[in-house]
Design a protein that fits this description.
The complex is a heterodimer of chains A (372) and B (303). Chain A has 372 residues and is of the alpha/beta class. Chain A folds into two domains: 232 residues, no CATH class; 104 residues, abc type-2 transporter like fold, CATH 3.40.1710. Helices cover 66% and strands 6% of the residues of chain A. Chain A has a four-stranded mixed beta sheet with strand order 2-1-3-4, sandwiched between helices. The radius of gyration of chain B is 23 Å and the shape is globular. Chain B is 34% helix and 29% strand. The chains are: A alpha/beta (372), B alpha/beta (303). The interface between A and B is medium-sized, with 23 and 28 residues.
Amino acid sequence: MRTLRFLLQKEFRQIFREPSILRVIFVMPIIQLLVLPWAADYEVKDIKLSVVDHDHSDYSRQLVSKITASAYFQLQDYTGSYQTALHEVEKDKADLILEIPASFEKQLIKEDKATLFMAVNAINGVKANLGGAYLRNIVQDYNSQVRTEWIQFPRFSPETNIEITSSNWFNPLMNYKYFMVPGILVILVTMVGSFLAALNIVKEKEIGTIEQINVTPVKKYQFILGKLIPFWVLGLIVLSIGMLIARVAYGIVPAGSLFAIYVFAAIYLLAVLGLGLLVSTFTGTQQQAMLISFFMMMVFILLGGLYTSIDSMPQWAQLITKINPVSYFIDVMRMVVLKGSSLGDIRNHLLIMFGFAVFFNGWAVISYHKRN
Amino acid sequence: MNAVIVSNIIKRYGTKKAPVSALQGISFQVDKGEIFGIIGPDGAGKTSLFRILTTLLLADGGTATVDGFDIVKDYKTIRERVGYMPGRFSLYQDLTVKENLDFFATIFNTSIEENYDLVKDIYSQIEPFKNRRAGKLSGGMKQKLALSCALIHRPSVLFLDEPTTGVDAVSRKEFWEMLKRLKEQGITILVSTPYMDEAGLCDRVALLQSGKILSINTPQGVVNEFGKTLFAVKSNDMLHLLNDLKQNEDIEDAYPFGEYHHVIMKHGGENELKDYLRQTGRQYEMKEVRPDIEDCFIALMKN
C-alpha cells in the first residue's frame, strides 16, 4: 500500500508539473464542448433554390412564395430557362431546381392535375435528400391547400385524407445539441482516459525509466494500478467538467440520475484504461502509440453512433459497434440524460462494459512483463 | 562466497532464421567487494549481460547467481539486492533531484535518512541543487544522481553500465574515486566501459568481444601476459611511417598510439627494426616501452 501511495504521488506530481498536458486534459475538453456542438449540426438550412418558371401565372407565383416563405429555402434566382438554372448548379450557386411547366395553371384548373419537375444537386447526399423531401412536403401542402379552396362544403370529402400530428418525445424541440453534447463528452472522456494513459506508459519506456522501475521490487499490479488510478480520476474530473458545461452552456439537465452516469462512467473508464494499457504494452514509442490511438479513435467515433445512427448501418458495421466500448457509453449517456433511464435500464450496458474492463485489463496484465 | 557467478550464459537476438548471438557462453566469477570491469567495444554484449544479471532480460542458456540467488528463480530477491545504473540516464527528468532520490528510496521501502551515510559522499555534491529538476542537471551531476539513486537502498551488488560514457575527463576521474570508496563499504561493483584506460582502475577485468570473453585477469596480470617486447617509434611523417611498418614481413603489428606508433616484432628485436627503419631513409626516434593494458587488449582482439 505504501509503495502504491508513493507511485501515485509521483504520477500526480508529474502530471501537474507538465503545463501542456494539463492544458490538454482540462482546457481542450472545455473549448471543444463549447465549440463543436454548434458545428456538428444535422439540420439542413438555407438550401439554395433556382426556380424555372415557364408559366408566370398566379398559381406558380403562389407556389414559389410559399416555398421561399419557409426557412429552409433561399431563392437563388428566378429564370425562364432550364439551361440558366443548370448553370447556377454547375457554379455551385444553387442546390435545387424547380421547373414549372408553361401550362401549369391551366392544366391544374382544367384537368385537376399538373406536373412539376425537380432537379437536385446530389454531391452532398444529405443535403440533396433532405432538400428534396422538404420541397416535396411543401408542394404537397400547397396541393391540399388548393384543394380545400376548390372543394367547398361537401360534408364528407370524397377523397380520404390522412392528417398526421406528431409529438416528439424526450427531446420535444428536436434540439440536436441535446443529442450531440453527451456524445462529444463521451469521446473527450475516452481520449483522456485511454490515450493519455497509454502515452504516459510508453513515455516511460522511451525514456528508459521503466527499466529503473523494473529492477526494483515494485510489483506488477502496483505499477499498473499506479498508472490506472490517476487517469481514472482525471477521466471522472473531465466528465464532471463536461456535465457542468452541458448544464451551464446548453441547459442540458440529465433527466435521469447523475449517479447512474457516474456508476457507468467508473466502469467504462476502467475498460478504456485497460485498452490504453494494452496499446502501451504492444508499442515501444510514443509515436507508435499515438498513431494506433488515432486510428482507433476514428473507428470509435464513426462506428460509435455519435454522428450516424447505428440502426441504419449495414449489418457488419453494426457488429463492429458491438465491440466498440464508446458506442455503449454514448448510448447510456443519451438514455440517462434524455430519457431518464435508471441503473436498472442500463443493466445490460453495465454488464457488457464490466466484461470489457475485465477483458482488456486482463489481457494487458498478462502481456505486460517486467522482463523480456 | 562469490558475489556473482556466471556460467555459460547465452543470449541470441533476432529471428530464428537469422539469429544474432550477443553472448556466446560467458562464464566468470566476481568476488565479494571487488571492482570487476567488463571492457569491450560497442556491441560486445556488455549491456545484454548486465540486463540478464539484473533480471531484466532472460538468457537463452546458462545459469547465473547474484549474491547467491539464481537470476531466474529468485529474481524477486535479486531485485531487492542489486543496484542498476543503465548506460542512458533514465531517471524522471520532470522530478527534482530530491524527489527522484526520495522516490527510489521509498519503493525500496527505505528512506534517504536511513542510508544517508552511504550516499553522502556523492549526494552532498548535488545537494545544493536538490530542488532542481533532474532534466536540467549537467551531465556529471546527472551521473551522480543516478548513482545515488542506484545506491539508496544499500545494494550488495552494483551494476554500472558504461557509467562514464560521455562524461568529461575530470568527472570520470572523480567517478572512479567514488567507486573506490564504495568498494571500501563492502559493495561489489560490476562496471562496464568501452574505455581501456579505465581497465587499470578495476581489481580485475574481463575483456569481452563479440559475445566472448577473451581474457580475465588483474590489470597487472593482463600486462604480464603480454610477453613480447614493444617499441614506440616516432617520425615527422607518421602516416607514411605506419604504412612502411605494416609492409614489413618481420613486424607482427603496428598501430598508432598517442604520439608514437607501437610496434611488435614477429622475430628479431631492436636491431632488426632499426635496420629496417634505416633502409626507409627516414628520420626517426625509437625506444622500447612497457606495454600498458591497452596494448594487451589490442593484441588480444587481433588474435
